[in-house]
Amino acid sequence: MRLIDYTEKSNNNKVMSEKDKMLAGELYDANYNIDLEKEREQAKDL
User: Fold this and answer.
1) CA distances from 45 to 19, 37, 38 (A)
2) % helix / strand / coil in the chain, to the nearest 5?
3) Closest among 31, 24, 15 to 5, alpha carbons compared
4) pLDDT by residue (tens digit) across 1-45?
5) Which residues contact 9 (CB under 8 A, 6 or more apart)?
6) Separation of alpha carbons 14 and 41, rounded Å
7) Nearest 10 degrees: CA dihedral of 10, 16, 20, 26?
């Protein structure tokens, strides 16, 4: 596993979202990510 700089870009020159990093198996920061926070809350409600 390697550390990823937040400005690291994927092959198509777009900055990877935290969710994209998570799905790719890379390190990500879910603490202050609004999209991941919403998904956590939805999962808790299931």
Assistant:
1) 20, 13, 11
2) 40, 5, 55
3) 15
4) 454 555 555 456 678 899 999 999 999 998 889 999 999 999 998
5) 15, 16
6) 27
7) 70
Tokens of 24: 């790719």
Q: Closest by alpha carbon to 34, among 16, 23, 21, 19? A: 19
Distances (CA, A) of 10 to 13, 18, 23, 33: 5, 12, 13, 19
Q: What is the pTM of this model?
A: 0.59
Place of tokens 């900055």: 15
